[in-house]
């Protein structure tokens, strides 16, 4: 039995399905932990196979390879160095489990399974895994260690059970996706409660990095049994921290370490967009991105996000003017590209618009110019940008915000065309907030310019699609501050028309917005992926039928 443990918490990124690469990264971290004198290295949830692996875990070949990779990893611990706690998938008695293994002295020494399986929002674990029994602690160097896995600490039963069975400290591995204000919820709302309930210190280790529409912020930490914060790791970056744990007269305690500052709002949102895009582009092996730069705020901030994610040299902005594009838009787009430092060119779409007008003249005879012709312009832009993507390889970014996507103020097969949308879960007022913030600050993980990234005129001008003369977004929509307030109620909080009317919104406007929200579902179902920021993103969290007749009014 020992009275002192040195534990390295390895807050790492991971690649779903790349077991060899994930294992190599863990072994490299173990080498560094050995140099730091660690007894044990802990890695995040499902670090070996990547999280969430979704239906990959249902493939027998995937499960078999995971088992082989874990045995190979365990064999590396025969050298007398630190033991490893590794999250992976396991099969026991024909059932598939999300679990954690202690790799020690060359073998898989002990295994525990996740008991509480989340089945809400982005999580779908009930259809993939069987819950494990209430886990008992493992024994390492004579110390009883409880190993709750992610969701296990969001309910009291697992930690209480571990404490009742003699656990002396808790090491909780996580794959907890970023949501606005979630770091506070994890620490104050969950971890401190479990620590105080049990009287046991708790290390909360979270993964970092992007995976399709999810992004993980890291921000791992340790709280002691009295609820005090002992260690706070950084967010949005990989980090390894070596912690010292000591047996005292009143139980085990983690020595106080560094308390890293976490990104404030809205830097946290901006970092989520940057890291998610960086990993999406990199892991899908695109050389960079291309996007239409219109002189408006949405495309400008997307260009800035891309530059911070990939570096300005991997961002290609294209202005696609029509006869309705103002000189102000041309000037602002040119200056924005210069400030970001990215490649920029102009491709007028008038020749293609004229060709379509001629081609459709017979079919459209005696019909007034309307939204159809507006959408043709948008689709010509989409075709042009996709041609550049196909010819030269960069992924096309779309730039529509969540306010527009909510009410269908986007052209399917036009400005919705592309491979990824950084603003998919960002309401218009959030776009304004992060644009103003980025013009004054550079994110800590940013690769873009140090100074402002867009002319102030882009932020202050009235939003417009410029698909007809003197067009403004507010010709068709309520002011964005009003629209976003209604959408927050309808989408994020599932409020009814009556509830929002009681809160002071105009009933007729709310009824109209609810209708637009419902009939635009078919568009959103065909939209590209984009990073989740809030509690109810379209696609993973909010799963509505395309065809339905329910209205709350």
UniProtKB/TrEMBL annotation:
Its EC number is 6.3.5.1. Deamido-NAD(+) binds at residues 375, 404, 523. Pathway: Cofactor biosynthesis; NAD(+) biosynthesis; NAD(+) from deamido-NAD(+) (L-Gln route): step 1/1. ATP binds at residues 292-299, 399. InterPro entries: C-N_Hydrolase (IPR003010), C-N_Hydrolase_sf (IPR036526), Gln-dep_NAD_synthase (IPR014445), NAD/GMP_synthase (IPR022310), NAD_synthase (IPR003694), Nitrilase/CN_hydratase_CS (IPR000132), Rossmann-like_a/b/a_fold (IPR014729). It catalyses: deamido-NAD(+) + L-glutamine + ATP + H2O = L-glutamate + AMP + diphosphate + NAD(+) + H(+). Catalyzes the ATP-dependent amidation of deamido-NAD to form NAD. Uses L-glutamine as a nitrogen source. This is Glutamine-dependent NAD(+) synthetase.
């Amino acid at each position: 039995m020992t009275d002192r443990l040195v534990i390295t918490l390895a807050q790492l990124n991971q690649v779903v399905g790349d077991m060899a690469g994930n294992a190599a990264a863990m072994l490299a971290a173990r080498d560094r932990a050995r140099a730091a004198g660690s007894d044990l290295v802990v890695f995040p949830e499902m670090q070996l196979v990547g999280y969430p692996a979704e239906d990959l875990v249902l493939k027998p070949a995937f499960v078999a390879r995971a088992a082989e990779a874990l045995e190979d990893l365990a064999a590396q611990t025969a050298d007398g160095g630190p033991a490893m706690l590794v999250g992976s998938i396991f099969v026991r008695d024909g059932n598939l489990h999300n679990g954690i293994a202690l790799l020690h002295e060359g073998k898989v020494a002990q295994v525990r399974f996740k008991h509480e399986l989340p089945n809400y929002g982005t999580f779908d674990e009930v259809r993939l895994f069987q819950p494990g029994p209430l886990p008992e602690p493992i024994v390492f160097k004579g110390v009883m260690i409880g190993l709750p896995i992610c969701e296990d600490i969001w309910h009291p039963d697992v930690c209480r059970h571990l404490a009742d069975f003699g656990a002396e400290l808790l090491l909780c591995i996580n794959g907890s996706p970023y949501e606005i204000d979630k770091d506070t919820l994890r620490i104050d709302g969950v971890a401190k409660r479990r620590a105080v309930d049990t009287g046991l210190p708790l290390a909360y280790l979270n993964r970092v990095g992007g995976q399709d529409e999810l992004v993980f912020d890291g921000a791992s930490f340790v709280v002691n049994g009295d609820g005090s914060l002992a260690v706070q790791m950084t967010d949005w970056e990989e980090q390894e921290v070596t912690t010292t744990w000591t047996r005292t007269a009143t139980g085990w305690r983690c020595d106080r370490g560094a308390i890293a500052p976490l990104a404030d709002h809205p830097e946290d949102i901006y970092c989520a967009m940057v890291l998610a895009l960086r990993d999406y582009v990199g892991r899908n092996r695109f050389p960079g991105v291309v996007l239409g730069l219109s002189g408006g705020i949405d495309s400008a901030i997307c260009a800035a996000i891309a530059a911070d994610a990939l570096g300005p040299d991997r961002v290609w902005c294209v202005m696609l003017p029509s006869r309705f594009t103002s000189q102000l838009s041309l000037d602002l787009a040119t200056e924005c590209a210069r400030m970001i430092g990215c490649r920029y060119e102009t491709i007028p779409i008038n020749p293609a618009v004229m060709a379509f007008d001629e081609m459709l003249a017979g079919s459209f005879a005696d019909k007034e110019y309307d939204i159809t012709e507006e959408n043709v312009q948008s689709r010509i832009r989409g075709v042009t940008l996709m041609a550049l993507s196909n010819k030269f390889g960069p992924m096309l970014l779309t730039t529509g915000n969540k306010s527009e996507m909510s009410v269908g103020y986007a052209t399917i097969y036009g400005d919705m065309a592309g491979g990824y949308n950084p603003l998919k879960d960002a309401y218009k007022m959030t776009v304004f907030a992060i644009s103003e913030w980025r013009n004054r600050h550079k994110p800590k993980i940013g690769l873009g310019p140090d100074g402002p990234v867009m002319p102030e005129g882009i932020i202050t001008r009235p939003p417009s699609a410029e698909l007809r003369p003197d067009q403004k977004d507010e010709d068709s929509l309520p002011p964005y501050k009003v629209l976003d307030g209604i959408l927050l109620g309808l989408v994020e909080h599932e409020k009814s028309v009556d509830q929002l009317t009681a809160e002071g919104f105009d009933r007729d406007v709310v009824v109209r917005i609810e209708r637009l929200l419902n009939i635009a579902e078919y568009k959103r179902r065909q939209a590209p992926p984009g990073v989740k920021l809030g509690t109810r993103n379209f696609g993973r969290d909010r799963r509505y039928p395309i065809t339905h007749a329910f209205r709350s009014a």
